[in-house]
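Sequence in, structure out. Go.
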Amino acid sequence: MMNAAATPIDVVCLVLQDATGAVLATQRPANKRLGLSWEFPGGKVEVGEPPETALRREIQEELTLMLGRIHRLADVIHEYDFGKVRLIPYLSQCAERPRIHLTEHIGSVWIDHRDWEQLQWAPADIPVLLQLNHLASR
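Output:
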């Protein structure tokens, strides 16, 4: 029998990339887990909810943004002290940076994905950035 603590929490995130290759990073509030860390926006998948549906819902809630075409990237499993997370990243590309309205985060920035080390990222997001760099180097 599988230990419930070993079952990962499914979390979706959006890697929104503009025409220059910059990605949107959002900063977590200080009073939340991983406070002040930067991350790709998203959130928990509800029980029975398909990940793509969860992503579209979370991005509408957090950024007031309706998503167009998205492409799933490779999942990331990361073990935090509070539990194991399966991060399910989706890539969306935009010709122009959309107008967003932050409802959960305290800041946002567009950053070239190759310059990711300039920000203090949530640990589970780092393998996603490395995936982007790998895809860009092809």
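Check: The helical segments are 51-63, 126-136. The chain has two helices and eight strands.
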